[in-house]
Amino acid sequence: MKHKQTSLSKSRHYSILYLMMVPGLLYLLINNYLPMVGIFIAFKKLDYSAGIFKSPWVGLRNFKFLFATSDIWIIIRNTVVYNIVFIILETVLGIWVAIMLADLANQHLARLAQVTIILPELLSLVICSYIVFAFLSQENGIMNNTILPALGLRPIGWYNEKGPWPVILTIVYLWLNIGSQAIIYLASIVGINKELYETADLDGASRFQKVIYITVPCIKPTIVTLLLLSVGSMFYSSFGLFYLIPHNSGMLFDVTATLDTYVYNALMHKNNVGMASAAGLFQSVVGFILVLTANKITSRLDPDNALF
Amino acid sequence: MVKTKSEVAYQCVITIFILLLMFAIIAPFVLLIMSSISSESSLIRNGYRFIPKAFSLDAYKYILRNADTILRAYGMTLLTTVLGTSLSLCITILLAYPLSHRDLKGRKVIMFLIILTMLFHGGIVPSYILWAKYMKIKNTIWALILPNLLLNPFFIILMKNYFENSIPTSIMEAAEIDGAGPIGILWHVTLPMGKPIIATITMFTILTYWNDWVNALYFVNNTKLWTLQYLLENILDNVQFLVKNSKVMTQMGQSVANIPSVSVRMAIAVLGVIPILILFPFFQKYIVAGISLGALKE
């Protein structure tokens, strides 16, 4: 049928298709590709009045300064360690919640629970920081006024004390993300062939054995995909979580600063473009290498699960 | 299935766990709402509580009296959300639709260029300098719409895959034989049949714009352009901001000391989530669908 059309109308069709793509591709060029080219700023001493092209080259000086500070090591440690803790907990808890939701006989409750757990997903981190403030505010927070006294403990200046913050940030992260994790795993658990479980029942398998030998292997592709994505973003962090929730408090720097908050503060407050761009480039390059490596390893072990 | 004793016990245990989980998710929302309807004096004496000692709507009355700042921010959020979402949808569809044609020359190269943007980022500094110094969008409404939010590469891929795999080629071919061009096919076949994915992506885009505060943080100083989220971000540490910027207040000669700041803070946050809570029942189906899709490739 297709050969009935003249080649003229065919080529006109294609030129229309190419025209349609112009706005989107133009946006990607500006928003994504020009900044990729702009990474050379990290090797310059930026002088806004001269413009980025005429600013003098300084080689690796920005990086030397950056890695000479003790801050950067704390920041890298925070970024990576928080990510590792988050990944492990959200995966284990996400799968656990998903299994419970799948097993729940009361369908109404299961559906209600699914809807409830994704509520925090819809919040902005600004609203989330208000909620955390309602808990932790030194004068009015529920922790200092109600919960700690009930436990016989003295009030804490939450926004000045480092100690509790790794736990607080982990709880907030899980509160925000456990829902989507559980929903993703639930979608793949629902797809598992029921006969596998029935056969296992006949063999007298315990509930835990069924999880280990049937559920987890069956949802392995999902687990691998999500882990792969998380490993790829190991050097990135949620800016909002680490900036808003601790109120960008300087006293908490050691336990709340990550590469993303560092770049923001260096660029916007300390006006230190050199350090900010060096830290940013470090993040981009390491992130890129990690994605490629993680994908390479997966494609060798398990070609079906590789991302590309 | 026969209900064994252990099955009943198991159901009890998981029901309890699920209820506890739901409580843990909901409780913080309850605390927020209850705090906003507590009387200021009880908050100062007892702090934020799940069950207030004394109820009062003073915080909301106060906000209502000084509504100009907040209404303005609401308006900005609404405007950026509507403008941003419509623009974003248009260019996403216009990019995804041609890419769903298997015989389009150069398709592989373009797909590679799109995927590459998800793997390698230029970083915040070059991006900031580009938008602020070269595109000169600081303190314009475009600052809230253009940088980073307008086109999500992942959404292009999701939409392209849906158009390619879920719309039967036979229908497209039939339309082609009827003499429809690419625009006709897009309008009469692809868009109506692609509704599920378009709706899902619309929901996520609306949420992205409604909740964004980072672009305002980087690019906006002019308080007239503040969105609701950014206003909230500034008020958390400084409730006085509301007064400084309220003409009504200065005219009435009210002083800063009169603000019921402890409850007002929470009341404003409640006003910030209410639209989302109201829309949630309608959104919910698409959000779940979108999250499940994200499992494939984010």
Topology:
The complex is a heterodimer of chains A (308) and B (298).
Chain A: H1 7-37, H2 61-68, H3 70-103, H4 107-117, H5 125-136, H6 142-150, H7 165-190, H8 194-202, H9 207-218, H10 220-232, H11 239-244, H12 253-256, H13 259-269, H14 273-301
Helix pairs in contact in A: 2-14, 3-7, 10-14, 13-14
Chain B: H1 5-36, H2 40-46, H3 58-65, H4 67-99, H5 107-119, H6 124-134, H7 142-145, H8 153-166, H9 169-177, H10 182-193, H11 195-211, H12 214-219, H13 228-237, H14 240-244, H15 247-252, H16 261-294
Helix pairs in contact in B: 1-16, 3-16, 4-8, 4-11, 4-13, 5-8, 9-10, 11-16, 13-16
Taken together, the total number of domains of chain A comes to 1
Residue runs with pLDDT of under 50 for 5 or more positions of chain B: 247-253
Most strands sheet of chain A: none
Shape of chain B: globular
Mean pLDDT of chain B: 87
Helix fraction of chain B by DSSP (H/I, runs of at least 4): over 70%
Largest interface: A-B, 103 and 100 residues
Total E-strand runs of chain B: 0
- Report the C-alpha radius of gyration of chain B, rounded: 25 Å
Which topology of the domain at 67-245 in chain B does CATH recognise?
A: MetI-like fold
Give a structural overview.
The complex is a heterodimer of chains A (about 300) and B (about 300). Chain A has about 300 residues and is an all-alpha fold. Helix content of chain A is about 70%, strand content about 0%. Chain A is built from 14 helices and no strands. Chain A is globular, with a radius of gyration of 25 Å. Chain B is mostly helical. Chain B has a domain at about 65-245: MetI-like (MetI-like fold). In chain B, about 75% of the residues lie in helices and about 0% in strands. Chain B is built from 16 helices and no strands. The relative contact order of chain B is 0.13. Chains A and B meet through helix 1, helix 3, helix 4, helix 5 and helix 6 of A and helix 1, helix 2, helix 4, helix 5 and helix 6 of B.
